[in-house]
Specification:
Its EC number is 3.1.3.16. Keywords: Hydrolase, Membrane, Transmembrane, Transmembrane helix. It holds the Pfam family SpoIIE. InterPro entries: Bact_Sigma-Reg, PPM-type-like_dom_sf, PPM-type_phosphatase-like_dom, SpoIIE_N. By secondary structure, the chain is an alpha+beta fold. The chain folds into 4 domains: 135 residues, no CATH class; 147 residues, no CATH class; 82 residues; 218 residues, PPM-type phosphatase domain (Phosphatase 2c, domain 1), CATH 3.60.40.10. The protein is 56% helix and 14% strand. It has 29 helices and 16 strands. Helix 6 runs antiparallel to helix 7. The protein is extended.
């Protein structure tokens, strides 16, 4: 979004397309399901796709990762033809009967089975089948039909998780998988502890929760706990056993255990001795005893602790603390590694003169007949005369020479040439050493600043729901304590889901919470009680707050380089965050041209990434300042930063200026200027940008400019006053036209030599929720 011209107002909100965590998990599990085999057949790939399409026909693209999983697993060429044809036939059947599939739910399992049997029959044209192959194909067809029915219910949990619970699922499974990996292949009295724990989780969750979460635990714990060589077997066993156990849970503990044993039997019956035996008889007996002895209340409490739908964020906080600790340790390690740049590059035991004397002695004089006379009997005189020759600024062979060389030295010319070359080499070394020291100092500073950035990132922590935390803090000041706030983007606007303890009859919802949001939002809000404990008897109160209207921002942007330059050093960015905040930012890189542009673009890119990662505005600016010190160390590079932050629910705006010129707010015919003076980004360690808060209303316009615009205004008086008159004279409400007209009017009366010029205009407008 950097340095981009903008569009008409209704198309201003840039919606980013990204793959959700849920879809990534489906793609991964699809690959695994396609790869999972039973006795050299692959009966789960097409049933998996069928079960997904039953829930969402737009997920047909999962055919590709599932087929890749099957393709990478098949070792037999004939089987490759069989499954390749089956996938092609299935795709054609889906395209042919796509309308009927939505109406006739039985049709998709039938098409899946038909694809497998048709692919198998066609593959028999290449290789004549045996009776065993025909029987195996029939069994695979029946198994695929049953698998579609099982998986269509087993995968329901991917579509019923509330917003944010996929993240909790990942955190939970990471912790569980870490414990299981720590246990490893530990065996105690013939019992595999890891297999026993996973089986117990499957049985307990089947009893307390149901098919969806059992399948989820079976798939995800298998992915984490077992190596790739055992993964297909683990996935098959726990999925089948868990699903059968949950189907029979209505008959109580006996039904769950019977279902688990049926799944265990089916697994071993179809796979036989080729499979991996995850549970021996001792393990089965322990699971039976534990299930009967543990009270149902304890099982339910344990399952609630492991539940995928619990709102508590404790596990995530633990995970964040672990990550933060590791980041701080990494920063300390980097800081220690950076000290390497302070160590001397070469051994400094010998100075250049000593080194030269040794080389003359060993390389030139060693084979001379007078070697012993010079280096043994007259050692001091020899050293003294070499020193005189070495330190002389200029030596003439036919002029004044040290006594030794005049009287008896037969290798004078060779020694002279060596000393001359050695002196030149040492002078060059001094220059190079100075350059290396300078580069080392710069590198050390870069590493030190980078380590500082890492520490700041870790200490501040990434909070993906930062705005929700701010709301909790504001509610707390009003005496309203809530456990969690979830902000959901529901297409036309945002809704706020609040979870708190019951009111106990004091009607906190109506008396305190509703008035708070009435005042916070532009035109008030409506409240819906999703679950009231006074009526339902549950432990938590759940409220949905829907603002009656929201603000949006349409943006216009123009940017031209300095006269004679190919690149503008000014850059801009604008984006909306998940929590309903809008950011507009300008940056002016020092100087002009490509170097200035790169610096300003880098400033805005890091800023945008920090905000979208969940950092608050103040923390993002501090981290950005340290990051730009790393980027610009060793030179005089810096950038100004001009930010406008708008809360789209309340209209509150904050203007942050670091080395930037004034910004302006136009409301109807009145224009207000917002001035700031502070150091640019990346100049020094501490930075205190100017921060101004204002309340914006629909149809307000925010005008942000770089110093090149203000400097280009030709005026004998106050240039800012003349610029305000320019803004007042423009009547259009289209932000792009507004920015272009400002630029045109400024250029009409500009000075002869102008700088880079960038203008960013934001129109605040109202949208109904």
């Amino acid at each position: 979004m950097i340095n981009k011209k903008v569009f008409p107002p209704k198309e201003m909100e840039l919606k980013k397309s990204n793959i959700s965590l849920r879809e990534l998990m489906l793609i991964l599990i699809g690959f695994i399901m396609g790869h999972a085999s039973l006795f050299n057949i692959y009966p789960f790939g097409l049933p998996f796709i069928s079960s997904i399409i039953l829930k969402d026909k737009n997920k047909a693209y999962l055919i590709l990762p599932v087929f890749i999983g099957t393709f990478t697993g098949v070792k037999n060429v004939n089987f490759l033809w069989k499954y390749g044809l089956a996938y092609i036939i299935f795709t054609l059947l889906i395209l042919t009967f796509k309308k009927e599939i939505n109406i006739k739910k039985w049709l998709l399992p039938f098409l899946c089975s038909a694809s497998i049997i048709m692919g198998g029959l066609l593959s028999f044209l290449w290789v004549a089948p045996s009776y065993y192959d025909i029987i195996l194909l029939i069994l695979e067809t029946l198994l695929s039909y049953i698998s579609v029915i099982i998986l269509s219910e087993g995968l329901t949990f991917f579509y019923t998780l509330e917003r944010g619970n996929v993240e909790k699922l990942i955190a939970l499974t990471i912790i569980s998988g870490s414990i299981l990996k720590l246990i490893g292949n530990t065996v105690f009295f013939g019992v595999s502890i890891k297999n026993l724990i996973i089986s117990a989780i499957i049985v307990f969750s089947a009893f307390a929760r149901g098919t969806g979460e059992v399948f989820g635990y079976g798939v995800i714990l298998s992915l984490l706990a077992y190596p790739s060589s055992l993964l297909p077997w683990a996935l098959t066993f726990y999925s089948i056993a868990g699903c059968f156990a949950s189907f029979l849970k209505k008959y109580g503990k006996i039904g769950v255990l019977a279902g688990f044993l049926i799944g265990y039997g089916i697994y071993h019956y179809y796979i036989g001795l080729r499979s991996v035996n995850f549970l021996n008889y001792q393990s089965l007996i322990l699971i039976l005893i534990a299930t009967f002895l543990i009270p149902e209340a304890v099982i339910k409490k344990l399952e609630n602790t492991l539940s995928l739908n619990e709102e508590s964020s404790g596990d995530i906080n633990i995970l964040k603390d672990m990550i933060n600790t590791q980041m701080i340790e990494l920063a300390n390690t980097l800081e220690e590694m950076g000290k390497i740049y302070k160590y001397p590059i070469r051994d400094g035991n010998l100075n250049p003169l000593e080194d030269s004397i040794l080389k003359i002695k060993n390389r030139i004089c060693r084979d001379c007949a007078l070697f012993k006379a010079c280096w043994d009997r007259d050692y001091k005189s020899t050293i003294a005369d070499i020193f005189k020759l070495y330190t002389a600024k200029e030596v003439f062979l036919d002029g004044d020479l040290p006594r030794l060389f005049k009287v008896r030295c037969g290798k004078l010319e060779e020694i002279y040439r060596f000393i001359k070359m050695d002196k030149e080499k040492n002078e060059l070394k001094k220059v190079l050493d100075a350059m290396v020291r300078e580069i080392s100092d710069i590198s050390f500073e870069k590493v030190k600043h980078f380590a500082s950035c890492l520490k700041m990132l870790a200490k501040k922590g990434i909070d993906e729901n930062r705005y929700a935390e701010d709301l909790k803090e504001e509610l707390s000041k009003e005496g309203i304590n809530v456990e969690n706030i979830i902000i959901a983007d529901e297409g036309k606007g945002y809704s706020y889901y609040i979870i708190k303890r019951p009111c106990m009859g004091n009607r906190t919802c109506e008396v305190k919470i509703m008035p708070f949001f009435e005042n916070a939002f532009i035109k008030g809000a409506d409240m819906l009680k999703v679950d009231c404990p006074l009526r339902s008897g549950k432990e938590k109160c759940r409220i949905k707050i829907v603002p009656r209207s929201f603000l949006s921002v349409a943006v216009g942007y123009v940017n031209i380089p300095k006269e004679g330059a190919s690149f503008s050093g000014d850059s801009a960015t604008f984006f909306e965050t998940v929590g309903g905040q809008y950011y507009m930012a300008l940056s002016d890189g020092m100087g002009v041209g490509e170097k200035a542009r790169n610096h300003s673009e880098k400033t805005l890119l890091i800023f945008e990434n920090l905000i979208e990662s969940g950092y608050g505005l103040e923390d993002a600016i501090r981290i950005l300042n340290s990051a730009m010190q790393v980027y610009g160390s060793g030179g005089d590079s810096f950038s100004t930063l001009d930010i406008t932050f708008i809360d789209l629910s309340s209209g509150m705006a904050e203007f942050v200026k670091a080395g930037a010129v004034s910004s302006f707010i136009k409301r109807k015919d009145k224009v207000e200027s917002l001035r700031g003076s502070a150091l640019p980004i990346g100049v020094m360690d501490g930075i205190n940008p100017v921060r101004i808060r204002k309340k914006l209303m629909p149809q307000d316009m925010v005008i942000m400019v770089t110093d090149g615009v203000m400097d280009s205004i030709k005026s004998e008086g106050d240039k800012e006053e003349k610029f305000i008159k320019i803004i007042e004279s423009i009547k259009t409400t289209n932000p792009q036209e507004f920015a272009e007209k400002i630029l045109k009017k400024v250029l009409e009366g500009s000075e002869e030599k102008r700088d880079d010029m960038a203008i960013l205009v934001g129109l605040v407008w109202e949208r109904k929720n």
